[in-house]
What we know:
2 domains, 57% helix
Amino acid sequence: MSDYNTNIVSLKKTLLIIDGNAETRKNLIQLFTGIYTIYSTDSNSGGVKLIKKYQPDVVIANVCNDAITTVTLCKTIKENDTLNHVALLLLSNTDNTQIQLEAILNGADDFIIYPYNSEIIVARVAALLLKREQLRRYYLNAFTVTEATNTISDDYKAFLTKCIKVVEANIENENFSMKIFSQAMGISYSVLYKKIKTICGQTVNAFIRGIRLHRAALMMLTENVNIAQAGLQVGIENQKYFRQQFVKLFGLTPSEYIKKNRNKSDKKIDTLQFIIGNKVA
């Protein structure tokens, strides 16, 4: 097997395997043993409990229906602000495009059809982890990036600019919802989700939160705004949650981030450049 995966991800990453077939589950466990810390279960319902308990970096789930369907599993991960950073790779023994589309629309990051090649699935997991690490590093160094928006088309720029304006117009509203967002954009939620996912590789919730946190970071660096005030002014009233999400995004606490970036020469990067980091990542 290629050692591609071991070169780009940390051995400390955690992986949850959900598969009702004992033999398949055993094979997957053996495939990733020694690469990641592994948890496993035979059902989606058991998987939800383990996801909430361990918050793994990646979940590999076989498409199945038990007490909790695979689509519900996707929603549970991607619509939960404390879990939606978890990458979700689905396995299926059917090439039914409707199943794939429904899963992707509800947050699946990747989809593989049986029979799968061992090296391919290992590489896919590694790629998901690499993408998230690159994104985190991009955000961490966001204020040194000057031409990130050159990486996407003018149509995408126009769409994202409109999205950003809508979110920023509601930046102080903690209850700003995806329904309000899609209505303001004049498109259905499914279309909004697909376009943001295609351009940025993010869920709508993550997109909105990224804009809020970016604005908070700018306020703390360029205005006389402290950490508590910054959270309130971008619609995140829970200070513990604000700090947790800030660390998840930037890899530093707000106070560490301010200290590291206070003297950066370029603090004028706009929100669009910041958001496009998902694409260049």
